[in-house]
Design brief:
By secondary structure, this protein is an alpha+beta fold. The chain has one domain: GMP Synthetase, Chain A, domain 3 (2-Layer Sandwich). The N and C termini lie far apart (32 Å).
Length: 92
């Protein structure tokens, strides 16, 4: 399973999101020290009800926890956008 598919599967299991987009931006960071060591750069948009009443920092920590050891190895950089369904609807 490739890294994007693994991230998607892991986040779907952890949060049951109503919307999830995972993008691999590693090619844009070729030559970067993290890329040279095999770590990828990813951008994630995740919309989940479980983010209600959580601060942005708490939401990000929850995502990092769900991704576990991958945050120390195969994921070098992770740009996160974490929203509740209500926040997502306001932007639509």
């Amino acid at each position: 399973m490739d890294r994007v598919a693994w991230i998607e599967t892991t986040l779907r299991q952890a949060f049951t999101p109503t919307h999830l987009v995972v993008e691999d931006e590693s090619a844009m960071h070729a030559g970067h020290a993290g890329a040279a060591s095999g770590g990828g750069h990813f951008r994630v948009l995740i919309v989940a009800g479980s983010f209600r009443n959580q601060s942005p920092v708490a939401r990000q920590r929850a995502v990092y926890t769900a991704l576990g050891e991958a945050m120390k190895s195969t994921i070098h950089a992770l740009a996160l956008r974490t929203l509740t369904p209500e926040e997502w609807e306001k932007q639509a």
